[in-house]
Amino acid sequence: MSAAKLQLLRHAMERYAPLSQSTWKQVQQSCSERKLAKGEILVQIGAPSQHLYFVCQGLLRSYTLSEDGKEYNKKFFPENTFPGSIRALLTGGPSDFALQALEASVVLAIDHPAYRRLLEKAEDLKWYHIQYLETNWVLDKEPIEVGLALSDSSARYQAFVEKHASILHRIPLHHIASAIGVTPTQLSRIRKL
């Protein structure tokens, strides 16, 4: 695992809160590198997971399946983001969604049990964790949920474009359609408006 990839992780974490050298050293020790081919599944639906992930390179998506096998995209994870099923990690249960590489990707796998043990004793890591959760699970997620419930498909598409402008060209259109809750044909019509 390269020092450059670890520095990417540290920089991403310290956007939320600074970490002491001692804490950072312990975080590093819980990391391993994983390379993914385009299309490779990192986490299967229904499988437990013992890792948080950090995207160093590439693009991942999280998705779930309906009872009839239809895919529904939940979120996209480009470089410098943290994909994973937090619920599955916290409960020890199966993941409700899969993580799949949309491009050849490199991720750092952070051992969750080791991370939790460190979280219990490192105040700076606790502060990082709080800031991360507030930003990504409250401030970012709430408007998305309200938008899905109250917006029409054109408004959802525009919001998606604004939120993902820097990676839009990397996401296949059928995945965008799934993410905003329309068919690819409906998306084609929306894009022509």
TrEMBL record:
* SUPFAM superfamilies assigned to the protein according to its UniProt record, in alphabetical order: cAMP-binding domain-like
**InterPro entries from the UniProt entry:** cNMP-bd_dom, cNMP-bd_dom_sf, RmlC-like_jellyroll
What's the short name of a Pfam family annotated to this entry?
Answer: cNMP_binding
> Which superkingdom heads the taxonomic lineage of this protein's source?
Bacteria
Domain annotation Cyclic nucleotide-binding: ranges: 15-136
Q: In its UniProt entry, what is this protein called?
A: Cyclic nucleotide-binding domain-containing protein
**Organism, scientific name:** Pelagicoccus enzymogenes
